[in-house]
Design brief:
Distance between the termini: 56 Å
Strand content: 15-25%
CATH architecture of the largest domain: 3-Layer(aba) Sandwich
CATH topology of the largest domain: Rossmann fold
Shape: globular
Order of helices and strands: EHEHEHEHHHEHEHHEEE
Bound molecules: pantoate
């Protein structure tokens, strides 16, 4: 029998913060038994307007309790990456969640999440070694492993992710389908600054000059999409020329792929993806493009 929920478990009047995975599982189970849908928004904290949009999307579903997880997952950071300098401020993140009418914040420690280490993991397959995976070996194993754990702990009806991390979203869709997670993965379009820069927790590491330079990523995507009727070569050439015209962009990749990140078609729907370093900060962005006249 499900134990009744106390006010410390869940309060419809405000946000409840939990750290213990077993307790969250018990609370969401009771909420589901009471007929509520659970929408999960997995994050690493440092919440910004992009996360607010994910939370608002989660609220669109009827009769839903929104659960935001906040966990800087060590498994998805390489040895030379920014795990230590990744911004952490639980108090201000919880304030944002309160403003956005989140029901539960799940903020476990690494010890809570990996009490006996992390020997078992989810493998992303070949796609996990391409694009982001080529410069960040093991990154997507870490992402999929923690997301699978969050799915099992929270048992959501919906899980909401941003399209800004398009490869991540694609791999999570695939994992949910192939491993039969009984939930819907929902992708939400990227939120941008007034000049097109995609919102990211990493933007705070850019100084004023780098911030100006970083706009070149979204500008290149727009320029490429603008000539998409002329086909894949024109898209790539135009986007590459736009990036090359801006000093301070250290391009990692610029690729055109199918929407599922397989090889790009000559005509029809495709995805243009870019990654570059601006100073020491690595930024990514992507956009949908319609190649050729798109009418086949
Ligand atoms: O996109 C992120 O913030 C992270 O990769 C995620 C999905 C929360 C997993 O740690």
């Amino acid at each position: 029998m499900t134990k009744p929920l106390s006010k410390a478990d869940y309060s419809p009047a405000g946000v409840t913060v939990h750290h213990d995975p077993a307790r969250v599982t018990r609370v969401v189970r009771a909420l589901r038994a009471a007929g509520r849908n659970i929408a999960l928004v997995p994050t690493m904290g440092a919440l910004h307007a992009g996360h607010r949009k994910l939370i608002r999307e989660a609220h669109v579903m009827q009769n839903t309790v929104v659960v935001v997880s906040i966990f800087v997952n060590p498994l998805q950071f390489g040895p030379n990456e920014d795990l230590d300098r990744y911004p952490r401020n639980l108090e201000s993140d919880v304030d944002i969640c309160r403003e956005e009418r989140v029901g539960i914040v799940f903020a476990p420690s690494a010890e809570d999440m990996y009490p006996s280490g992390a020997t078992a993991s989810v493998s992303p397959g070949v796609l996990g070694t391409e694009l982001e995976g080529a410069t960040r070996p093991g990154h997507f194993d870490g992402v999929l492993t923690v997301v699978a754990k969050l799915f099992n702990i929270v048992g959501p009806t919906y899980a909401v992710f941003g399209e800004k991390d398009y490869q991540q979203l694609t791999l999570i869709h695939r994992m949910a389908r192939e491993l039969n997670f009984p939930l819907d993965v929902v992708g939400v379009p990227t939120v941008r600054e007034y000049d097109g820069l995609a919102l990211s927790s990493r933007n705070r590491f850019l100084d004023a000059e780098q911030r100006q330079t970083a706009v070149a990523l979204s500008a290149a995507l727009v320029a490429g999409a603008h000539v998409s009727a002329q086909g894949p070569e024109a898209v790539l050439r135009t986007a590459r020329d736009t990036l090359a015209a801006v000093p301070g962009i250290d391009l990692d990749y610029l690729e055109l792929r199918a929407p599922d990140l397989g090889p790009a078609p000559e005509k029809g729907d495709a995805r243009l993806l870019v990654a570059a370093r601006v100073g020491t900060t690595r930024l990514i962005d992507n956009a949908a493009v319609l190649l050729g006249d798109g009418d086949d």
